[in-house]
Batch of 4 targets.
Target 1
Amino acid sequence: MGKNEKTGLGRALVKQHNQMIQQSKEKGRFYKNQQKKVLESVTEVSDIDAIIEQADEADRLFSLAQPAPSLPISLDASSSTSGMTPEERREQQKKEEIMHASSLQVPRRPPWNAGMSVEELDDNERQSFLMWRRSLARLEENENLVLTPFEKNLDIWRQLWRVVERSDLLVMVVDARDPLFYRCPDLEAYAREIDEHKRTLLLINKADLLPESVRKKWAEYFHLQNILFLFWSAKAASASLEGKKLIAPWKTQNNLQDSDDPDIKIFGRDELLARLQFEAEKVVKRRKESGSSSSCSGNVADIQNVIVGFVGYPNVGKSSTINALVGQKRTGVTSTPGKTKHFQTLIISDKLTLCDCPGLVFPSFSSSRFEMIASGVLPIDRMTEHREAVQVVANQVPRHVIEDIYNIKLPKPKPYEPQSRPPLAVELLRTYCASRGYVASSGLPDETRAARQILKDYIDGKLPHFQMPPGMSDAEDPMDNNLLVMHESDSSDVEDPPDVEGKSAPNIEHVLDDLNSFDMDNVLASKKSTVTKPKASHKHHKKPQRKKDRSWRVGNDDGDGMPVIRVFQKPPNVGPLKAT
């Protein structure tokens, strides 16, 4: 065989070898894609998805011969809560929530050791997670309890378990506008179960969106509850690194925004790093003095290096905080919750290491699904009912603040409605659409687009709002007492509320009195006596009648006026004519 010939034994062997390698790669890629699923957060599943998932986790096979499960559906209208008022139903719901508060826990990782195999450890974790899901399902059967959406992906909870175990100091990042909504007390208890010396710090992010008087109230509350906390703003710290300056959305009349009080001070980047390292070293020192060694912690052998783990709800600023502390973008940040998929370890120095955990939605009784959407916990782009979520925004932000921010004029309440009621979601959406020109293809206002924009402004802080600590009376609310004014806002543009002093508020009795005094006869008589619109002069003359065509009738033939039917007879056929 020649050198330049295309066929040969060597070429055939090389070609066969390359084909085997390519087939092996494709086969391995197929099994990898088949076995490994994309890690994503799962907070809501349908009933059939839940049944299939639980069956897969329990390694059971459902046959078609098995009877269908009985669903607890009550068709009786006279249930235990049918005759209760909304206030009584809410009180009963609070009692049930307090009674079952201890049952609302985060899933625990089962005990393990280094001698376990991968299959055994995976099976134990799945069985433990399945038992936790069943316990929450039993709580959902109680008609007086409403369980909010929570994380249902086991792999996401595994990320949390690893971060909690290897961290010396656990930092729970919460939103400063409603810290208790994002705080999970059971997670703090779980950290103490793993290591009694492990501490949890409450990092109150977005503290620049709170006025100083509100921060003082929250500082007093956290001191009474013996909670370790720090005020922090990841956005302000990132802007400081870039040389930018942010304008606070609130100003106090005394201009005390920049205070040296350590309890209400917003920590900077270097100060926060030093404080985190100090608290973590205290935990390691306390553990060393007690002589306890935790097999789960990976930093016992090296006392000089401490690990700080960041946990919390989605979209509260965990990744933004770590990027600000590191000094550069090391973790992905988006406005959509659930950007972080796996925990990441970042080395700050030889003595400090940060660990970022994916955001988790913890089970709770205290909020609804629409409140979670408005808070940014659930994705805005996946919502199907936008008016309920916008109503949460309308209830939290005062009417005049919405009008000043968006430069719109909302419809005022009807005379028989409470004048202090918040604007309705449909009023806010349609007014916003009219001012921005949002029109759908059908020609109606594009309320979905407007709702997404309003909710994003609410989450980003363009619409200022905050919650006060529990136990604070309405008289002490700075929002109601107008102790706070927004920057770049003119108080003269806001109309004063109508003076209703000395007048009773309109209620349903006034509406019924108006209906009783309504006289339909007078209304009808007034309608009849109304002046009609004058017609033009050329329309007043009477047109002559058009003569009917009666030509088909018989004339003066002494007939009865009925039409005459003439019959023409055909002459008899005499045959063809013959020529003569």
Target 2
Amino acid sequence: MLIEPAQKYNHYTPLNLSDRQWPSRVVMQHPTWLSTDLRDGNQAISKPMTITQKLVLFRLLVSRGFKEIEVAFPSASDTEFSFVRTLIENQEIPDDVWIQVIMPARKENILRTFEAIQGAKHVLVQLYSSTAPIFRDVIYRNSKDDVVNLAVKHTQLVRLTANEYTAQFGTEFQLVYGIEGFSQSEMDFVVEVCSEVKKAWESHGSRTRPIVFNLAATVECAPANHFADQVEYFQSLLPKRDESIISVHVHNDRGTAVAATEHALLAGAERVEGCLFGNGERTGNVDLVTLALNLYSQGISPGLDMSNLDELVDFMTECNGIPVHPRHPYAGKLVYTAFSGGHQDGIRKGLNLMDDGFRSMKKDRTPCWRVPYLPVDPSDFGRTYEVRINSQSGKSGTAHVIEHVLGLDIPRAMQLELSQTIQALCNKCARELNEKEICMEFSRLFHFREPENSGSGTDTIHLESCQVQSNLPIIDANIMIGGEAIVGEPNLLSCSKLQVEQGKDFLLALNKQLGLGLVLLEEQSMKSRYGIACFVQVGQHGNTWWGVGRAGHLAEATVRAIISAVNCVLDSKLDL
């Protein structure tokens, strides 16, 4: 890198707009979307798609709601030409969808392009000029007058040919005039070119659909706000502005294509060209998925169906041979995943409040989404929130896993004890733990056993069998201590007593059997996904232990929770 980069690179020249309007505007509706995945995206991949692959992608774009789709550069190759013919001859294009074809300002290319679209119902024909000095001077070696003359001449040819095809085949046409290098051009010159193109188009036929002026940041060379200034300046000087549509086609060289496009919409643009997930030359075109879902997250219908995002990601990855980054907005594998303890805590609290809101509202209404760290509900796109547990995770993360997998909403004190154990294990293993490992560690730490799996070789005490008589609420429990059955008081617990009395009575019986002096400090019960869950805390000499049990009946869940806690006491090996 240069110490003084100004020696090599020029700073952009800002526009002097004393009364710019776009910063105070708000976008309240989606633009017209055009997907150029089949053309601009396809030309930028190492292995271009076959006609069969293109056809499948075209159908997908239609199913996702695109009404304008750029399908080919027909004069560029036989494959491009043949694909357009396939679409038309096989009647693949719905009546409400317009296909777009692109062509340079050359007579032979224009005529070849019209051959390709013969018989189509609705066609956007895009002609383009390179107006930027760097293109005029380096590539084409032409003057401003040359650019204007070529633009007018070939616009007239396109219009006359379109008139013939309309008369012969009934095709409805709309002109899209692309300004290649718009963001690097002199704005007054761009206005001149577009004005002359409009005159040429309208002077050779009746006015039908408005001309689309497609303003391209072919190479992104300045901040997003500067592009918005350029769009606002252009449209403010364009004669009869209401008779034209302003479109933008932004590349991502500076990484701000989404911002530049959103700013351009504020500045007056009404149409956007781009690719799904930002495919395209160099750093790609603007990402239509991100743009659409940015609108969605603000309560604005995007006009595109982005449900089941994983399916779309997999499909486009296969088409392009380019994976979607795990951190890609909305669509990445890790977007709805939290590792940080603070994030996990905030998200868990927010999701719990959302659940409360759903339960309290009428069936035909949905509470506004308010979850920290999650700007959108992943389920809207077929995704789920995922907790990933590593040494940076906190108690809320592990608690979420236990709640999600086991259906247990564990008390805060248990969360803390579990998270400390999990963090220590993550550090020891030097990796994250998966849900199965976390649940196994929870079961080991608290001696948690489901009713169908009560016995365990590592538990000093376990419930061999348990039955609750429905007509007479009495629990008949067979308790094993050290592999031997015990008889007497612990085997009969009246369920008609208060819950705390059940716990105390059973704990007293175990104290007597084991020679302990444990006291029941806290007892909680709640409905869980798989029955009634009970949590108890016991203590002795300032030490405390938690236990958890679950069963179909409260009395049995209480017995299991106390057995869990006492096993934790015995496991601690403290001299009590």
Target 3
Amino acid sequence: MSSSFKLFYDYFSPLSRSIIILLEHNKVVYEKTSVALRKGEHLSKEYGQNVNRHHKVPVIHDNDGLRLAETVAIYHYLGRKGIISERWYPTDVKKLMKIDEFLQWNHNSLLLTTGSIFYEAWLKHFKDISGTEHGMMKNVRDPTNFVDIHNSLNMLENVWLENKKFLVDDEPTYAELIASCALMQVVGLRLFAIDNEKYPKVSRWLQDTKDYFNPEFDTAHQYIYKYGERFNGPPKIGLTIRAVLFLRNLMNKS
């Protein structure tokens, strides 16, 4: 069966991973094109003109000439085109809107807070190889700077998972993927650890989500696991130019 669309992605993008796991779990045939964010490939003029004018991933190009960015829009496209089944894109409006409600909440809460931690701990190292300390590690190491992610975890624990096994219903939906991939951006890289006693429902939910979507889940997170094990947290403060270049070279081989 030939593919009907092409996906531009990077495994270091949690939103890319959420779409890939959804597609792979549903055995969807599609074409994949890797975009190395760490190399700045998405920032080129050619990328903006030919792939995505917003210079982000994920993006899909279909055979009818549609170019579509924004993960939630891609999810709706996959559902309305019948690429994913009703199991993953309900025809029941109430069920679909409950999924959409979580996706909208996630964008300005969990995804934003985990993304901020990842940026402070990792991405700044790839923007400056001068060896200058930017104070990023002090911000990341200080527990008081994790207030926002704890607020998000409290919402997951006490609101979204208050009386059900998963975020929207008692069975997984796409909400599980978009939330778990956001969390794994910091948990998998060992930038943050979920307190199992403080957030027992979140801990159980995250493990249940992994179990449900494996092996696709672990495959999509292989590089996150790899660098989490390699560095066991953020790259160390005050890196020398040689150390930063080594880190860049290591990531470029992934």
Target 4
Amino acid sequence: MGTSAHTHRWTTRSRHRTSQGVVAYGHCACGRWRVDRATTAQVEQTLAVTSAAPTEGIP
């Protein structure tokens, strides 16, 4: 199984206020997740991006 490069279309699945700013969890249809943080200075920083997880056998 090969993977092809594409432009991710992130959908915000969850957003939470924290003492460090707002943390948002995004998901792409390819299976990747990412975590972003927006601080009070309105600076957005991507904290993590996962690799696509295999979906076979997952109910």
